[in-house]
Amino acid sequence: MMVVKNAALTLKMEIMNLHELKILMLALLIGVYQGCLANTYSVAVDIGHSKQNPGATSARGKPEFDFNRDLASILQQVLSADNIMSFSIGEHGDIVDAKQRSAIANAQNARFFVSIHHDSAQLKYFKIWRWQDIDRPYCDQFSGFSLFVSRKNPQLQKSLHCARMIGQALRQKGFTPTHHHAEPIAGENRTWADQQNGVYYYDNLAVLKTTNMPAVLIEAGVIVNRNDEKMLEQFSTRHRIASAIIQGIRDCKVLD
Ligand SMILES: [Zn+2]
Predict the structure, then answer these.
(1) Ligand 1 centroid to residue 250 C-alpha, Å
(2) How far does residue 251's CA lie from ligand 1's centre (Å)?
(3) Does domain 41-251 have CATH number 2.170.190.11?
(4) Taking the model in full, what pTM does it have?
(5) Which of the four, 59, 133, 204, 206, has the lowest number of CB atoms within 10 Å?
């Protein structure tokens, strides 16, 4: 009788263990599933401007939107190669409302938002040169990258830390920040957040203040500068910029 009772107890314990094992397996599967979801949409790559509003025009007449799209494409390739999953916003050039961009990133629960842009300068600094039989405005006075964060973003400290780390990585790869957005004139007059690493505050930038996650806008270089434009069109330059952005994202641990 005792043997039967012990056998029944052992059976009951095995059933319980099986039940617990099932719960454990389910929890593990949910964890893996959530991990996959989190990784699937880690980084939102926002392609600045649209076909309707293409942004700045380069010294040789190319729209900023094209530069943004081409750099974003390489950034996504390098992210993928580094096992960081991303999705792009505005790659077809059909998003006109900036809030739509942050709404997409928020809906996808992106863990980091980076908006890709290329820079210009104030009109008073432009000169005219002739390129392919057309007179075109250019400005060689300013050169380099800029990074922007908004103090209205709900995760300012993380945004700022990531912008600093991206700026630092760009500097380590030989790029230099431009200081022209801090000039106290109309259209500029931005406050430095980190001068050494090229980070400014731009509080009312819609994509930065309406995103729920840490967000940074990068002006990768000055396309109205004739030398910068040529350099920024090269695959090797784009690849170095993309690698620096990824290095910065890793260093600021926003995806951990
Ligand atoms: Zn732009």
Answers:
(1) 25
(2) 26
(3) no
(4) 0.85
(5) 133
